[in-house]
Amino acid sequence: MINTVVLEILVAAVAYICIAITVQRRLSNMPKMYAMQAAVQVKAKELNDMAKAGADQAVLMAKQKEMSAMLMSSMKYQIRPLLVVLPMFLIVYYYLLPLGFANAPFPHISILSLTLTYKTLFFYTVFILGLVISLSLTFRDKRRYGGAPVQPGTTT
Which of 16, 101, 112, 118 has its CB surrounded by the most CB atoms within 10 Å? Predict the structure, then answer.
């Protein structure tokens, strides 16, 4: 039988994952991000082909500068959600969890010679389940948007 404190921590971790992924999805523009990544790959191949063909250094530098600007723009779309989700995690982990569970009777749980506390149970649950959900959403998004050009009228 699962201890109620353990169950409450697992529910808190799943709730955090749902909120974090929802925030991440709302702040990201997946079609634009994948289109930008596809464009960067095309530019990188173009740049590589030009370098192999012995193109002029000035032309190569101009293409490199153009590609760098595209990479920075792409990174902006990937980092923006992190600026919200990471502080959210830190608040939950360092403030809310101790507030709710520091004095709760947590059972002694050891897995692979690692003793779990309420914080480590929360962290591992968020990390593992969040990773699995994020990867599955990424694969789904790649199939849906991967490399497709952004449609006119798509918001940024």
Answer: 16
